Amino acid sequence: MKPEGTRLIASNKKARHEYEILDTLEAGLALMGSEVKSLRDGKVSFKDGYVRFTSGEAVLVGVHIAPYAHAVHTGHEPERPRKLLLHRHQIDAWSAKIGQKGLTVVPLKMYWKAGRAKIEIGLAKGKKYHDKREDLKSRAIERDLARER
């Protein structure tokens, strides 16, 4: 019996700080067996991850999935490009959007959904230094107001 609901594997907290997220999308991942085992242990890092659209495919690049410690065979390459499972119309629409100046696609979080690894990707626009400072300032004000209540 497959588990119901979703369970978070990892989230990319830095993405929301570095980028303004304009739109999100859920995608499946084409993984090897040792990568799935490693994800079950939560061994993933989004440090320099992004999504590249080439020849009609969406590919996740730069996401580090650590090798599984108990792998019988050689395992997998930790930062290999991984194909994202999306519909053709989604790939076409998002590749057209990133053709615009200053837009990119970054991974936001990875989770289990009905026993399958899913990744949430976001269409993002880079923030300027003063935008980041404004966000920090507004969060500090909200935190102070919450304390007063």
TrEMBL record:
Name where it's found.
Cytoplasm
Q: Which UniProt keywords apply?
A: Cytoplasm, RNA-binding
Q: Which GO terms describe its biological process?
A: trans-translation; trans-translation-dependent protein tagging
Keyword match Nucleotidyltransferase:
no
Q: What organism does the UniProt record list as the source? A: Desulfonatronum thiosulfatophilum
User: What function does this protein fulfil?
Assistant: Required for rescue of stalled ribosomes mediated by trans-translation. Binds to transfer-messenger RNA (tmRNA), required for stable association of tmRNA with ribosomes. tmRNA and SmpB together mimic tRNA shape, replacing the anticodon stem-loop with SmpB. tmRNA is encoded by the ssrA gene; the 2 termini fold to resemble tRNA(Ala) and it encodes a 'tag peptide', a short internal open reading frame. During trans-translation Ala-aminoacylated tmRNA acts like a tRNA, entering the A-site of stalled ribosomes, displacing the stalled mRNA.
Q: What family is this?
A: Belongs to the SmpB family.
Name of the featured protein? SsrA-binding protein
